[in-house]
Amino acid sequence: MALDEAQDFSATALEEVRLLTCDRRDTQPPFSLILVGDDQLLPRLQMGINAPLLARLSFCLQLQPWTLEELQGYFQARLQAASIHTVPFDEAALQLLLQAHTGDPGW
C-alpha cells in the first residue's frame, strides 16, 4: 500500500497509519506500507509525537535531485524505450528542456 502526499496528513491520520502498522513480530506482516511525500515528510515524522510511527518504519529513503548528466541519460533511455533512436530536438532545445527541469525523479 502506498500513501502519497503523506506530508499533508493530519496528526490523527498519522496515528491511524501507526495503528495499521501494529503487527505481531512473530508473524509475517499482512502488507507493505510506503509513505510518499515531499521534503517536509521526514522532518515531520521525526517529531516526538510521531516517534512511535517512525520506529515502526523499516527504513527511510530521501531522493536527491538528478544531475544534468543523469537527466540526459534518463531522457535518452526513455527515447530508446519508445523506439526513437535519434533525439527529435536540436541540441539547444534539448539543453533548454533539461535545464527547465528541477531534477525531481518523479518528473
Give a topology summary.
Elements (H helix, E strand, L loop, with lengths): L1 E2 L7 H10 L13 E2 L5 H5 L5 H6 L11 H14 L9 H10 L7
Parallel strand pairs: 1-2
- The sequence of SSEs as H and E is EHEHHHH
Strand order of the largest sheet: 1-2
**Largest sheet report:** 2 strands, parallel
Helix percent band:
40-55%
- Roughly what fraction of the amino acids lie in strands? under 5%
Mean pLDDT: 84
Q: Tell how many strands the DSSP assignment holds.
A: 2
Explain how this protein is built.
The protein has 107 residues and is mainly alpha-helical. The protein contains five helices and two strands; from the N terminus they run βαβαααα. The chain has a two-stranded parallel sheet.
What's the quick description here?
The chain has 5 helices and 2 strands, in the order E-H-E-H-H-H-H. It has helices at residues 11-20, 41-45, 51-56, 68-81, 91-100; strands at residues 2-3, 34-35. The model has no long low-confidence stretch (mean pLDDT 84).
